[in-house]
Amino acid sequence: MSILALTVIIRLCQYVNKKKDQTRGSILMKTQIVASIATLPLALAGVFLAPQSAGAADFGTSWDGSGYSLQELLDGITTDGPGVDTVNDQTGYEWFTSTATGNSTASFMFEIAGYAPDNIFGIYNAAGTKIQLFGGANDEGDSSYFTFLADGSVSVSTIPFAPGASVPTTSPSYNFYTDFGNEFGFYLTNGGGQTFYTQNALNNGGYQQAVVYEGDDATTMALPGKAPGLFTDNEFIIAFEDLWVGGHTDRDYNDLVVMVESIAPASVPEPATLFGLGAVAVGLVASRRSQKNS
Predict the structure, then answer these.
(1) Model confidence over 257-269: pLDDT tens digits?
(2) Are the beta carbons of 94 and 185 closer than 8 angstroms?
(3) Is 132 in contact with 122 (CB distance < 8 Å)?
(4) Where are the beta strands (DSSP E) in 178-227?
(5) Which residue, among 147, 119, 125, has the nearest Cα to 243 in the 3D structure?
(6) 91-115 burial string, b = 16+ CB within 10 Å, else e?
């Protein structure tokens, strides 16, 4: 448990002892405070001891037919080395930071989805601010370059290529965002307006909507429209299921697949547990007001 957590508990215990000789109403208040203290370590544990990775996703049988499972798609672009095992190589990483001295790069790999014309892929920060990297008009071979500046701003340039083409189909887009920071997760918003996150706690029911794989410095891949290259340990494949995993879906995680380079995993923020700590404080205030009114 963190020093801050212990400090909060000690202060609450001191407050209880100070009131120990008061009336029966105060004793009731003390009982309520002690009950709140009992829940405090659980709330604070999530804030200060948050895990860096989640569990493994359970794959279903793809509705897209033979040759379109995530495993088959990745095998199809692997030219050398051990390749990626989509079941056993899942990292469970949910939250990231940029390690680039210049740009981090997202390369569009696959999109096998009925929502393909409308899906949006991007990054989000702990405040919930979203930055779009790819939209429905993007497809295999497109790239997005995002740069994190010292003042917390982010610049994004997305370059569209026709599949297999070496010349962009249109001029690159450019966008600039302020007050974003340098830690983020990835999100997908589907054509039905549902948004899913790499951070499972933000998904309806806590379901895992994305699988993440880290390069092994041994596998060579030829991404669509690009020359073969080594899948290094600062590169990550982010693969989303674009239908809610808790409902009727195939759980094939091939609906939008992107490789992102020059990033590293970071500790996951837990806004839900921060609310839990706030709830304890609200309970204490309410108890004191009740005591005053009795």
Answers:
(1) 999 999 999 999 8
(2) yes
(3) yes
(4) 183-189, 195-197, 210-214, 219-221
(5) 119
(6) bbbbbbebeeeebbbbbbbbbbbeb
